[in-house]
Amino acid sequence: MDNKRANCIIEVSVDGANGRYAVGIMNMRQALELPEMPSLSYTHPDPDKAAAGIVVSRKELAGFMACR
């Protein structure tokens, strides 16, 4: 992947019964290489939106990767 967006850093979280817990901080390429799990959520790749707590689904994250 030559896409510069692949290097954007995001936080991956798992949604559990007692709230959302961070799994790790990684780039978008690494996040999309994780197994597909409905309980995973990803911070928005835009740092301002991520700071506001906006999360996106795996499908939305893949859409950001597709944009050039």
Question: How would you describe what is shown here?
Answer:
The chain has one domain (9-66). 29% of the residues lie in helices and 34% in strands. The chain has three helices and four strands; from the N terminus they run ββαβαβα. It has a four-stranded antiparallel beta sheet with strand order 2-1-3-4.
Query: Structural class of the helices, strands and pairings?
Result: alpha+beta
Low-confidence stretches: none
- As a whole number of angstroms, the C-alpha radius of gyration is 11 Å
Given the structure, what is the number of helices? 3
Count structural domains. Answer: 1
Mean pLDDT: 87
Write down the overall geometry.
globular
Number of strands: 4
Helix content: 25-40%
Largest sheet report: 4 strands, antiparallel
Strand proportion, as a percent range, falls in 25-35%
Q: How do the strands line up in the largest sheet?
A: 2-1-3-4
Order of helices and strands: EEHEHEH
Taking the alpha carbons of the first and last residues, their distance comes to 11 Å
Strand and helix layout:
Layout: E1 9-16, E2 19-27, H1 28-33, E3 40-43, H2 47-51, E4 55-56, H3 58-66
Antiparallel strand pairs: 1-2, 1-3, 3-4
